Amino acid sequence: MEGQGCFGSFFQRCKPYIAMISLQFGYAGMNIITKVSLNRGMSHYVLVVYRHAFATAAIAPFALVLERKVRPKITFPIFMQLFVLGLLGPVIDQNFYYAGLKFTSPTFSCAMSNMLPAMTFVMAVLCRMEKLDVKKIRCQAKVVGTVVTVAGAMLMTLYKGNVINLVWSEHMHHSQSNSPAQAAGISDKDWVTGSILLIIATLAWASFFILQAVTMRKYAAHLSLTTLVCFIGTLQSIVVTFVMEHRPSVWTIGWDMNLLAAAYAGIVSSSIAYYVQGLVMQKRGPVFVTAFSPLMMIIVAIMGSFILAEKIYVGGVLGAVLIVMGLYSVLWGKYKEYKEKEAIEEIPEAVKEGGDHNNGRIATVMEDIEANGIEMPKNETNREFVPVLAISAPIPQPPMIAVETPKA
């Protein structure tokens, strides 16, 4: 029983990490399938519409059945937040990312998306969702880890080096060599335009994470929230597509790679990803969620060498090492912050029970805090813990006054 309890506790702690790593594999598969579909001429505006239509159809039944009794009422402020979430995620982020990809290159676009953890961390600090105390080691680790992660992403883009011959790719013959020609055909003006579009897309995605964390505090039905965001994003994308695409033939889709790309991206990368990210974000915060995004580039490089026989360079490996180091630094800082919060919340529970029996428990908790190197606030460490004695006695109740609950 004790072994099962230890394993269950270990699995509970690992669930956020397993969920986010699994999502990166899903995103990597989406990138490869979407790249093939776009190369065959599919409009990225139409792809965004079909993607979120599939996402809405996939997750809406679960939201209607599982959350029919706990779904909060949609007020006007919540509706406006949902409307903005649809603009930031499905419309602005994805359309600007695909447009930037057209003006630059896949490698540069993928590397630019690794600015997401840094942008999210800065925005979380500005919105006071993340406390930044430079004197604390855990905060220093998050700052340094963010900088190192971005540096590794830039290294993978700007420096190639020699080709690394992998065991599984030695017998693969990849005769296509259109990347240098394609890169040569891109002018400096288009490259700058694409870079600006990618920066806007990454900023919109970081803003999506921040606003999603705020919205979930007032609208706790995760499945319904995901469904509404995908549905509103679908309607907004349809309007954008009608404005940007004037040919009716762009809406044509058959039983081909275009349908697979839309269905896979909608079900895996939109519906499941939005829901899982919301659950993890509620427990660990937006910075923890976005800190895993650099892993996608590493997974894409490995999957590309298997499926597309792409070449892996020394610069890519060095950049990947830096990304993993920076990622570990950010996660270490978040882990220390999580343990500190968990320890502080455990102390009042021990005090409420009162008695001499719990004095030893309080002392044990304090020793664990000191042993783990967790810094306690001064007002917490200097406070005397007085046992509370619960007395059951009739207390006259004041007359009840009906007060309308604030809608905001």
From TrEMBL:
Domain EamA: 17-157, 193-331
An MF annotation (GO) of this entry: transmembrane transporter activity
Subcellular location: Membrane
InterPro entries xref list: EamA_dom, EmrE-like, WAT1-related
Segment forming the signal sequence: none
Keywords annotated in UniProt: Membrane, Transmembrane, Transmembrane helix
A single cellular component GO annotation: membrane
Keyword Zinc: no
Residue ranges crossing the lipid bilayer per the database entry: 17-38, 44-66, 78-100, 106-127, 139-159, 191-211, 223-243, 255-275, 287-306, 312-331
Membrane topology, as annotated: Multi-pass membrane protein
Superkingdom: Eukaryota
Family that this chain belongs to: Belongs to the drug/metabolite transporter (DMT) superfamily. Plant drug/metabolite exporter (P-DME) (TC 2.A.7.4) family.
Protein name: WAT1-related protein
Species of origin: Quercus lobata (Valley oak)
Gene symbol of the encoding locus: LOC115952371
